[in-house]
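The data are passed on as follows:
___
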Amino acid sequence: MKKQNDIAIIGIGVTKFGELFHQSYDDLVRDAAKQAVNDAQISMDEIGAAWLSTAFPEIGVFKGRSGMDLSEPLSLYNIPVTRVSNFCASGADAIRNAVNALRAGECDVAMALGVEKLRDRQPQDSIVKMMVEYGHPFLQKGFTAAGTFAVYANRMMKEYGITREDISNVSVKNHLHGSMNEKAFYRKPCTLEEVMKSPMVANPLTVLDSCPTTDGAACVIMVRAEDVDKNKHHPIYIDGIGLSVSTGWDLPFFDPYHDFLSFQATKDAAAIAYKQAGITKPIDEIDLVEVHDCFSIVELLTYEDLGLCKPGESKDMIRGKATQLGGQIPVNVSGGLLSCGHPVGSTGIRMVVEIANHLRGNAGDRQVKGAKKGLSHNIGGPGAIASVIVLNNEN
């Protein structure tokens, strides 16, 4: 397959993530979009098509059910606007759809914007309640994300000798990084003892091993590489983008061959993105990574699924601080989901904005020195859906 770097990100924007009771859904859309449009040095009416990522309008503020909820706050009319919902990979999938439209010649300037407003409803109306009431009539009863990933944690501990300290040190690392990110929800470092002694959610995962629910929005503006104006744009190129739906709600839990040591969706999405980007040894060819650390254990699983290390060696990476800022391959220098929180529809785009800032050299105190190539990863559902995007600062 020919190496893909024909699409460029020319504008980026991201709101603060957190309990944003003072901002409405529309406010967040306008904030992220205006940042991205101003960064691209274009006008709003130059956008030829847009994709809105909102995963769960039913449990937010009943916004994001169609592309209309992007058009209205931006007065972005008379162009195609599509709503995308694909669990935690929604934002990345919005980018993928925009990329494909640009490649097809459907438009010349594309916007992908992710937004979620999850803090305006009481905990009793949470994602868990939605899944129980509207999900599978049998399989969803008693199902929680923490309980799912705790099964993987226990399996990793038994098979690979990963310890509770290894798992919780992911949170320690990411909260340290988050303390340097002005857009993160949690901006306070924490100790290993604090993580391990925080309330248990699903053994061995504690509260501080779990990402918070937050509000937030992020946006990217993209064009074909041939349309980049280097006199005004600071482009970041998309080298590879892979999306995979590798299982359903009833799998892998009823698959007798599943070992609960990896996520096939991540492996499949990475293989697609790596092939497009011409990557054969990611640990040597990628400078920084944003992974979907909804729970600490998922980051360790993802090191292995992305091929950053061999199966069973993720514990060595966290122990050796290879993934900390200044290490061999920094991971979640934004603070990750553990610090930023997870407004589901916007997380995948926030990650791409974070990578773009590093590749531009604009990440401030948390800048990864000399970063030229980065990767973002999302996984959603019960490990069913994954996206991997490879970004590069050179064409």
Q: What stands out?
A: The first helix runs from residue 25 to 40. The longest strand covers residues 236-245.
